[in-house]
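In the previous chapter we treated chains in isolation. Here, by contrast, the input contains three separate entities that must be folded as one system, with a combined length of 271 residues.
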Amino acid sequence: MAQLVFDRSRFDPDTVFQSGQTFRFSRDERGTWRGIAHGTEITAAVRGDTVTFEADGPEDLWRRYTDTDRDYGSLFPNPDDVLASALAYGKGLRVLRQEPFETLISFIISANNNIPRISGIIERICRTCARGAKEAVPFPDPGTLASLGEADLRALGAGYRAPYIIESAKRAADTDFGTLAAVPYEDAVQELLKFKGVGPKVADCIALFGLGHAQAFPVDVWMRRILKNLYGLAGSPKQVRSFAEERFGKHAGIAQQYLFHYARGTLAPGS
DNA sequence: TACCAGGAGATCC
DNA sequence: GGATCTCATGGT
C-alpha cells in the first residue's frame, strides 16, 4: 500500500477530482474521496490542510499520477493578471497523468456533453464490462469494451457516440500509447485525430491528461469564454491555441486547467 | 419550449 | 482551408 501525504496547497482532492479531467471519483459524507485509476482503488482523505492519498502499487506510479513532484509555481514565473488569479483560485489543482485508453474513451464521451452525464455513462460502461457486483470496478481494456454492441452502449446513454467508442476501442487495441507519449506533441495529435470521435479539442485532452504533453491546450466553450471576457480575444480555436502557445509556453496545458477551473467557478454560463 | 453541455462528422463550396 | 447542419441525452 502506497501512502502519500500532501499539504492541501499541493494536492487538493476537492479541486482535482471535480475539475473535469477525471470522471471516476466521488466524495463521501466525511469528505473522503474514493475512486479508481490504473485498475486500483484510491482514497484521498482530507483532514484540515493535510491530504492522505492511499492506493496499492508502487509509490512512483502515484507520484506520477498526481503530478505532485513538479513545482507548478516555477512554471509560470511572471503570470499575467488573469493567470495569476486562476493560479490562486485553483490552489491545489493538479493535472493528473491518467491511463491513455481511459482518457481516450472518456473524452470521446465528453463531446457536446456535460460532466455529470459523462460520469454516469462511464460508470455504467465500467459496471457493464465488469459483470460483477464489486464496489469499485476498473475501466475496461480495449478488447472488452469493443466486445460491447452499439445497442448496448446506446442503452447506457452514450447516444450517437456509441459507434465512435467501439471503433476507437478497436483501434486502441493496436495502438502503442507509450510511443505517443514519447513522440513530439504535434505528432501525437496527428495520430490521435485518426480515432473516430476525436477532433482537435478531444485530441488535446488526451495528449494532456493521458500522454503527459503539457503543451496541449484544449479549447472548449469555457476556454473561448474566458479568452473573450478576460483577454478580449474572440478568435477561432486555432487562433486561441496559437495565442496560448505564445502566452503560456510549453506548459500551456497546465495553465489551461487552472483557467478552465477559474472560468467555471467565476464566469456565467453563456457569457 | 428552447437552449445548453469540456465537439465532431459529413457535406457544402 | 472555412462555414453550416446534424448528431442522442438529460437538465434547466
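Strands of chain A lie at 2-7, 25-27, 33-37, 40-47, 50-55. The mean pLDDT of chain A is 96. Compare these points with the single-chain example from earlier in the chapter.
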